[in-house]
Automatic annotation (TrEMBL):
Transmembrane intervals: 16-35, 42-58, 64-84, 96-115, 121-143, 155-173, 185-205, 212-235, 255-273
Organism: Fischerella muscicola CCMEE 5323
Gene designation per UniProt: crtA
Protein name: Cyanoexosortase A
Record keywords, A-Z: Cell membrane, Hydrolase, Membrane, Protease, Transmembrane, Transmembrane helix
Biological-process GO terms, alphabetical: proteolysis
Length: 283
């Protein structure tokens, strides 16, 4: 009986240490690849998502079942190995960088807990999957969201007093204009916020109405913040301030909007938690 059990189940000495080491290495590899690709939006989104997922897994580490079968471990290693080889051979990463976190996460989960244990990481894997959503959506969906972003940005400019004209995805001011392309549609930020919403609901189970409200608020915050960013860049183009435009478009300024979005959503989550605690205190 002992021989059969050893043949079907793998138990590592100090599994948490080895999984932590492998996981940290995979995260470092992905962030390095994104940094080299100079994809600022994905870098910020990936950093926040990896940090949140790592925190959740670390918090429940003592309750995880770390037993994996031979087949599941082999499949997990194969996924990671193939992904690493592919990333080393590509000269242009494109959408592969968006899918890499989910591939790494799935591979590591299979190594750690096997097929039966995947359910322990459903929320974390969904969060990482949201990173690849921008590359999985069909073109017409992205165009519709881009069009909504252009309309929202034009409305913001009109509301604060600018003489703005909108034609499709083009926003015109008297001294300049911008064309809202797919990269500025806000899909990346919205996906990031939805991933964080999933993690919040996993950490703090809520009533059904909050399970609907939380993702809606997360997506709305991401959409509005990105619309504000596009409006700001339109003003900078009109003022012929190209350096500032580059900063907010592809520099560190774009990360600032992601951080503010997360902080606003975090405040909303904090209010919900405080409301639940006050209700419990009454009883």
């Amino acid at each position: 009986m002992k021989t059969n059990k050893l043949a079907t189940v793998i138990r590592l000495a100090n599994p948490q240490f080895w999984l932590l080491t492998i996981g940290s290495g995979l995260i470092a590899i992905h962030l390095t690849l994104v940094w080299k690709a100079e994809n600022t939006n994905l870098l910020g989104t990936s950093f926040l998502s990896w940090a949140a997922v790592s925190f959740i897994v670390w918090e429940k580490r003592d309750n995880l079942n770390l037993e994996s079968g031979v087949l599941s471990s082999f499949l997990g290693l194969a996924l990671i190995w193939i992904a690493l080889i592919r990333s080393a051979s590509l000269s242009s990463f494109g959408g592969f960088l968006y899918a890499l976190p989910f591939i790494f996460g799935l591979g590591l989960a299979l190594i750690a807990s096997g097929f039966q244990g995947l359910k322990q990481y459903i929320g974390e894997l969904i969060t990482l999957l949201f990173l690849s959503i921008p590359k999985l959506l069909p073109e017409w969906v992205i165009y519709k969201i881009t069009l909504l972003t252009a309309k929202s940005s034009a409305f913001i400019l009109w509301y604060i007093g600018f003489d703005v004209t909108l034609a499709g995805i083009n926003i015109y001011l008297p001294n300049g204009s911008v064309e809202v392309l797919h990269g500025c549609s806000g899909i990346d930020l919205i996906s990031q916020m939805l991933g964080l919403a999933v993690l919040f609901l996993l950490m703090f189970p809520q009533a059904w109405q909050y399970k609907i409200l939380v993702p809606i608020v997360a997506a709305t915050v991401g959409f509005i913040m990105n619309s504000g960013r596009v409006a700001l860049m339109t003003v900078l183009v009109a003022k012929d301030n190209i350096n500032a435009f580059d900063y907010w478009h592809s520099g560190n300024g774009s990360l600032l909007f992601s951080i503010i979005s997360v902080l606003i959503f975090g405040l909303f989550c904090w209010i919900i938690i405080g409301h639940d605690e006050s209700k419990d205190a009454k009883f």
